[in-house]
Amino acid sequence: MWLYLAALVGLYYLLRWYRERQVVSDLRDKYVFITGCDSGFGNLLARQLDLRGLRVLAACLTEKGAEQLRDQTSDRLETVILDVTKTESISAATEWVKERVGDRGLWGLVNNAGIFHPLCCTEWLKIETYVDVLKVNLIGLMEVTLSMLPLVRKAQGRIVNVSSILGRVAFFGGVYCSSKYGVEAFSDVLRRELQHFRVKISIVEPGYFRTGMTDLLWSLGRIKEAWEEVPSHIKEAYGQKFFDAHHNGVKQGLLRCSTNLNLVTDCMEHALISVHPRTRYSAGWDSQFFFIPLSYLPTSLADYILTRSWPKPAQAV
C-alpha cells in the first residue's frame, strides 16, 4: 500500500518536473517590464533576463539606479524612472512601454517594487507609515497592473506579483503583512478573472533574504528611531527591557537572512518563461520547510510556535 502511494507521488513530481521544463518559444522577441530595479530582486532579475536574451524594460526609482543597471547590461535593456505611488508617473511609464512593445504587447509584468517599515511592534508605528507602505506595496502594485493590463492581455502574457511568506503567515510587521495579504488576494482574483484571456498570474513568496530592505544597520537604526518617537504611555507599557530583547531578536533574525537572491529570481524567471508556470512559488528554505507547513497548522498551535520565545512587555498581565 505504502509502496504504491510512494510510486504515485513520485510519478506526480516526475510529470510536474517534465511539464515545468518546457520553455516558451521566441524569448528574444518578448518584452518584460519590471518595477523596483534599483537594487535587490528587481535589479538581479533584470540582469538575469537580459542574459537570457529577453527584452527587459526596467523601471527604477532613481536615475542613479537606472544608470548603474544600464552599465551592467546589454543594449537591449532599457530603463525608465517610475514612482509607483504617483498616477502620472505610472501613466507616463505605460505610454513609454506601449511605444516599445507596439502590436506585440507586453509578455511579462513583474511587480517587484516594495518597501518595509521599521521592524517593530505594530503599536509603535505612526499611521503615516501604514499609508506609505500600503501605497507602494499594494495600491501601487494594483495601479501599475491595471495600467499595463491591456498590453499584457494583447500578448496573452504573464503577471508576476512579488508577495512574501508574510503574506501567508502574519506574525510581525503588521502593515507589511497586511499589504502582502492584499497582494495575495488581488492576484488570486485577477488570475481567476483573466483565465479566459490566457493571461497567467504567478505569486512569488520569498522567505528572509538580505536585500536593501533588510540591511542590518539600516533596519536596527529605524527600530531605534521608532522607539524614540513612541509616546511615553506606550513605552511604559512595553518597557526598555522588552525593547532591548526585541532589538536583539531582530538583529539575530537579520543575520540569518539568506544572501542567495537567485532562489527568488529563478522563481520569477520560471514564471515568465515556462509553458506551465506555477500559481505560487515559495522561495527559500525557510519559506518551503517552515512557514508553508506552519500555515496549515491549527491557529492556536501556530501562535504558540511563533511567539513562545517573544519577550513579555513590562505591563503584561
Write structural notes for this entry.
The chain has 317 residues and is of the alpha/beta class. The protein has a single domain, classed as NAD(P)-binding Rossmann-like Domain (Rossmann fold). The chain is 55% helix and 11% strand. It contains 12 helices and 7 strands. It has a 7-stranded parallel β-sheet with strand order 3-2-1-4-5-6-7, with helices on both faces. Strand 2, helix 3 and strand 3 (78-81) form a beta-alpha-beta unit. Helix 2 (40-52) crosses helix 10 (262-273). The radius of gyration is 21 Å and the shape is globular. The model has no long low-confidence stretch (mean pLDDT 93). This is 17-beta-hydroxysteroid dehydrogenase type 6. Pfam families: adh_short. GO terms for molecular function: oxidoreductase activity.
The helix/strand class is alpha/beta
The total of helices stands at 12
Q: Any idea of the CATH topology?
A: Rossmann fold
Q: Tell me, what's the shape?
A: globular
In the residues, how many domains can be counted?
Answer: 1
Q: Main sheet: which strands, in order across?
A: 3-2-1-4-5-6-7
Tell me what the CATH architecture is.
Answer: 3-Layer(aba) Sandwich
Biggest sheet overview: 7 strands, parallel
Q: In what range is the share of β-strand residues?
A: 5-15%
Keywords: Oxidoreductase
Protein name: 17-beta-hydroxysteroid dehydrogenase type 6
Family: Belongs to the short-chain dehydrogenases/reductases (SDR) family.
GO molecular function: oxidoreductase activity
